[in-house]
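> Could you send the TetR family transcriptional regulator prediction when you get a chance?

Sure thing. Input:
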Amino acid sequence: MSEGLRERTRRAVRAELAAIALDLFAENGFEETTVDEIARAAGLTKRSFFRYFPTKEDAVFAGVDVTGEQIVHDLLVRPVDEAPWQSLRIVLVESERRIHASGQAVAGLKLIESTPSLRAKVHEKRSQWRQQVSRTLCDRPGAELDEFTADLLTNAATAALDTASQAWLRSGGAVDRAALLDRAFGLLAPTPA
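Output:
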């Protein structure tokens, strides 16, 4: 079913509002930036801001939900005979590549890492994301995967992503992120029982 004009417009405004918020957070600091300032910079009222985001923190994570939906979609269309770990690896590495091609995404990651309230929120978002991905692994056409194994694979993949992200951030972005991801997924690759 195609998305209607109203929903496309809402999504575009959310994306623009999130981009403005991230720019202001990077410029002034997360705690120092008010919702009023974000709304004013976007040409909206504070009340309008809250129609798009329940909290200021949610503006930082606007792309996370879209990314999660894309990951679920990409997992569902992987070849049915592909091993779940291989599907996770391909889809998540490609997702990370898209995210890090955007300078704003990198700024968002640095903001999250430097702001305690955002670090707490990212854990909540990741928990929701892991549940969706795990269910998707079980729901893939032809999948013969139990919930325990799907959860384990999803959590291992998340650990690979987190470890690569932390190493990349520690290097100040100097280390090849794709190589870190490849190494992490390689080290955690399941061996046949």
